[in-house]
């Protein structure tokens, strides 16, 4: 176990059927008077979800102002628009109605309202926030875990830079999780969301720590559960119990629990993928699946025992003659699982043909964003990143 660990989860979770009908009641308890309703496209309106949320707010005397238009890999320009709107309307709370992109955008707006200067400087690691306007979420996809996490990722259109900022100040005050809202999702989004949940868990699982058995057990159970329940949803998209498992796994995979007692994990795959989706606008979960196998093969010998444990305990591999063979079998079985849920295991499977110049550009951007190397299983420099991108083509 690492010498010093912190676990902080201030988010209140309202979970179950019709959870969104409790929005007004819970926000009234927080003293909220006027809310920014932040959402993506028209699905929140067409499904009636936005109307249900607005009705719940109105019944509790809470006013609301709307700002839609969030896209996957949320844009900085809309964040700036939201900051100005919140200030103009004197709003005191931001409610994200959507998935990880909407929640990330809401967090960025919250930081921008509560801190002087350009909010992008936070994502450039030039300074830290001192406050954040309170955030709430009505979750519509099991994926990013932003509904309980510190994380937020924003893309700046100029230069197509995708950068993350993590801060406890951005953890939502309350999140409303209704698994029934997942029933209308296209299969690709569900599968990509599951890949995201798996990667949030694996990023922490693969580390250079002396690990805790309990934390390992929680992580391994989450991984097996997500894989099992995703296959159930593939066959039965309306299965409430399976969707509930995925929605809860999304939250606990990324709220800090699965990293407790460790060095925090590797995160190289995430940083490599951020450059990929920043330039090509691919779905985040799919991009992670496309890169992970190439990263794993490149680093596994630096933590061979961990990859063997993953192969046996998570992927059900029977130990082979050597640890190397067992570890590789686990990586191959993970890739086979991604294929079984229609996720890519190479970049070309997302209809992206990487050129040498693009690979160099992504490696340069990733190195700059990290201020040097990435990852802990094997610290990766620019040349290492280039090799992984090339292997993932």
From TrEMBL:
Keywords: Oxidoreductase. Residues 190-392 form the Fe-containing alcohol dehydrogenase-like C-terminal domain. Residues 10-179 form the Alcohol dehydrogenase iron-type/glycerol dehydrogenase GldA domain. PANTHER family: ALCOHOL DEHYDROGENASE YQHD. This is Alcohol dehydrogenase YqhD (Iron-dependent ADH family). It comes from Shouchella xiaoxiensis. The lineage of its organism: Bacteria, Bacillati, Bacillota, Bacilli, Bacillales.
């Amino acid at each position: 176990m690492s010498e010093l660990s912190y676990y902080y989860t201030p988010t209140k979770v309202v979970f179950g059927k019709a959870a969104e009908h409790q929005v007004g009641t819970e926000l009234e308890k927080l003293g909220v008077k006027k809310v920014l309703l932040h959402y993506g496209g028209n699905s929140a309106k067409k499904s009636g979800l936005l109307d249900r949320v607005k009705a719940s707010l109105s019944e509790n005397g809470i006013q609301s102002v709307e700002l839609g238009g969030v896209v996957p890999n949320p844009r900085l320009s809309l964040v700036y628009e939201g900051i100005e709107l919140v200030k103009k309307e004197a709003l005191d709370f931001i409610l994200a109605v959507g998935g990880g992109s909407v929640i990330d955008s809401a967090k960025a707006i919250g930081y921008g309202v509560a801190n002087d200067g350009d909010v992008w400087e936070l994502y450039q690691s030039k300074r830290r926030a001192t406050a954040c306007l309170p955030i709430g979420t009505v979750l519509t996809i099991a994926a990013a875990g932003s509904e309980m996490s510190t994380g937020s990722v924003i893309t700046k259109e100029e230069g197509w830079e995708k950068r993350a900022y993590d801060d406890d100040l951005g953890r939502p005050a309350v999140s409303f999780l209704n698994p029934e809202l997942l029933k209308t999702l296209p299969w690709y989004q569900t599968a990509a969301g599951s890949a995201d949940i798996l990667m949030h868990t694996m990023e922490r699982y693969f580390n250079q720590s002396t690990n805790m058995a309990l934390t390992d057990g929680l992580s391994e159970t989450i991984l097996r559960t997500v894989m099992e329940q995703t296959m159930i949803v593939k066959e039965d998209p309306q299965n409430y119990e399976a969707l509930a498992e995925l929605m809860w796994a999304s939250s606990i995979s990324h709220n800090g629990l699965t990293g407790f007692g460790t060095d925090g994990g590797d995160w190289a795959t995430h940083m490599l993928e951020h450059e990929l989706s920043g330039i090509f606008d691919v779905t985040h979960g799919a991009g992670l699946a496309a890169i992970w196998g190439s990263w794993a093969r490149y680093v596994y010998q630096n933590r061979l025992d961990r990859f063997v444990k993953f192969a046996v305990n998570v992927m059900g591999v029977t130990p082979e003659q050597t640890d190397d063979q067992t570890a590789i079998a686990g990586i191959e079985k993970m890739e086979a699982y991604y294929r079984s849920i229609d996720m890519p295991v190479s970049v070309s499977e997302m209809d992206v043909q990487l050129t040498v110049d693009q690979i160099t550009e992504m490696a340069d951007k990733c190195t700059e964003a990290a201020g040097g190397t990435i990852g802990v299983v094997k610290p990766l420099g620019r040349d290492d990143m280039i090799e992984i991108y090339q292997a993932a083509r």
